[in-house]
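Example record

The entry below shows one chain as it appears in the dataset: sequence first, then structure tokens.
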Amino acid sequence: MVVRGPFTGRFRQSRLRRDRFRRYAGTARRRLHEGGLGPAPVLLAFGVIWAVFQSLNANFLSPRNLSVLSVDIVGTGMIAVGVVFVLLIGELDLSVGSLAGLSGALFAALNVNHGMPQWLAVLVAVGTGAGAGAFHGFVYTKTGVPAFVVTLAGLLTWNGLMLYLLGPEDAIDFDGDGLVAMLTSRHFPAAVATYGLAALGTAAYLAVSFHDRGRRAAAGMPNRQAAEIWVRTALLAVAAFAAAYVLDRFEGLPLALLIFLAVLVASDLLLRRTAYGRQVLALGGGAEAALRAGVGVARVRISVFLVSGALAAVGGLFVASRLTSATTVPGSGMLLINAIAAAVIGGTSLFGGRGSTWSALLGVLIIQSIASGMALLGVQPAVQFMITGGVLLIAVVFDALARRAAAGRARA
């Protein structure tokens, strides 16, 4: 006869909690060794940066500064999304800064100097960026010349064409109330826009997470625990509604941020939920293995450079929109450096096969937060470059160590 005391049930629950904790701790240790902690290190660094700058200047987290920050990240962020596509196949596109500058210059020259309607000039500019990117991919694929050499030649070529279009004054001003200028000046002040977007994003994440969990469970594959999904959703909800609250206190939801988030969601769905996205990731794991698996290597390579060129052109239009002028600033080199740094700092591997387009958002937030904080403190830009360089070095070293550890375990 088994006698069950009043503490038997409590003891059993306590033991189940300890077992669950050990399981989660084991999973965390395994992900740490494999370099698979996801965005956790980046989010931690992001929180530290914000806390430091807020302690040094109380205006850093003000609604005005954060609203400006949410618009400033879009130009570089768009370019960084395209860079992520190229990095995922283990290559590098050095032409994105020059293509961004060329896009703005081509738009302004066609609209201001030749009277072309703005919407048509935008299409021509983006189409030119996509065509240039596809050309880079074609040359790289068909000739075997390293991608960084091909795109370095593109950097020089498109930068020269940008300077030619801008003329001796190195700038062309366009209509401050037109279509392109509106990209960064338009806001949606209604609270339903900001809070509605936060609610929609949170609900969509929850639904997709549980759908994936059910699908993987039905296939007998490892899946996330329901508790983990609820915790992640709660954290996302806190971040989303906090952002909505801050934006609502200034001018509302910026159009630029809305477009950027739409591009992030669309590109993430493309990479994670389509056959094409699986082919990109497979190619990043090794061209020979991808070829044997039936991946059209040439087609995928050309396509990722096309995407990179198109998004570089879109990013260039947002940069020009912020200035209401096409200038030589995008082609100066800093835009290229910041875009690549954003993708890598956000968690996309330089060695290919690992990362997501959300890396662009996290990375560009860190870079632009440093720039914003330094500007509020009146610190010289040179210090900003050194800090950004240090953060980039840490991200690259972490990526390399994680890759080496994974390779060591594979050999064992």
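Notes for this example: Residues 190-250 form one domain. The first strand starts at residue 171 and ends at 173.
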